[in-house]
Amino acid sequence: MSNVYQTVVRQFDRAADRMGLDASIRKILAEPMNEVVIHFPVKMDDGRIEMFSGYRVQHNDVLGPFKGGLRFHPSVDIDEVRALATWMTWKSAIVDIPFGGAKGGIQCDPILYSDQELEHITRRFAFSLGANIGPEYDIPAPDVNTNAQTMAWILDTYLSTLPPGERHRSVHVVTGKPVEAGGSLGRDKATGQGVVFCIERWAQDRTVDLSKATYFVQGFGNVGSWTAKLLKPFGASLVAVEDHTGAIANADGIDPEELAAYVEETCGIAGFPKAAPIDHESFLRTKADMFIPAALENQLTAETAPWLDARVKVVAEGANGPTDLDGDRILGEKGIDLLPDILCNAGGVVVSYFEWLQNKRSEFWDLEEVDGKLRKRIMGGYDRVREAADEYDVNWRTAAYIVALKRLARLYKRRGIFP
Ligand code: NAD
Asked: Deepest of 73, 187, 354, 390, by most Cβ within 10 A of its Cβ?
């Protein structure tokens, strides 16, 4: 069992113990429902055949169809996907949307492949998944190293396998599509927008003036860059950034729009002319009010969490699982607030739900409507987690789990177990 899945199991046990979760429901939720592992061949540009391993784990669908992203990364394995799928179940329950939890991915380093090869890898995986995905069954979305283009390839491949009459009513088989292929306005920025709504509510609660706040971000892809761009109008100052190419800092502030344009061109933050390079430890020791991890798992651990400066007031988890159990404990000891992943980055799945609804109803919502509805869902989730933290006297991660588990337990009690 990998570190990250162990973390999920322990987080779950902690919340289940604290709230006294019914023993039968605990058994059901402790394991994923389905696990699909596919080894498939793809023809490379030079005619060679390469084998790939793809995964789709469906954790639970009692609340609605399985839902979750697809990740292309060398670290993808069955345990990582199990962990990410399980978090998706809790996430949808917290923000009260009718989806279950799933996740998938392909173990590969996309940097090594041409666009055409990536298209073939994606399409062959989608074809191999076959009926394991579907618009009313399991709906993929983008995650690390996948994007709207990836979703468009999956959409096209899936629809091509259907009888002609069923194609147009099946476009909700994926979300996070390009707008011209049935995507929703606001889906590209949705996760970052949700992070910013959470931070906004937290700042109100703690009477923090965001116009004077400083912050640093790990990961400057979809989630990290949108979070930074959306924090800019509040006047908060971005003072350090790290991605897979290195870390940079500028105490006078880094303009998120300029950095995003630079990354668009160079595929990484390294060499950005208006900031100085720093090492990983110096990055995590940045003196700033807020830290937003928006890259990968296990970044704040027994070794690294102590590095966080005394000035850091909150960790807002844009990424899934950036803080392990030791990290959580150390944040608590340091008095740092935690906006846990399953609340803080739920904006993506919320707007995915809006996209899915628009497709089903043949509607097209304007950005104002999408943002307004997203705000309500995230703020509602925030308030439920805060109430649970007060009621059970637990940290916000355990509180978020309790909110999710209560909702799932209520439904299981009503429906019962077949036969
Ligand atoms: P992305 O591929 O767009 O960006 C990933 C970023 O992480 C890149 O900037 C990359 O350089 C950086 N990174 C990779 N390895 C790193 C390392 N070792 N150190 C520092 N930075 C590193 O992915 P994304 O969609 O922005 O996802 C980021 C995180 O947010 C993931 O944990 C993902 O599961 C989570 N998330 C994404 C969404 C979404 O809608 N895309 C929704 C919820 C949660």
From this structure: 187
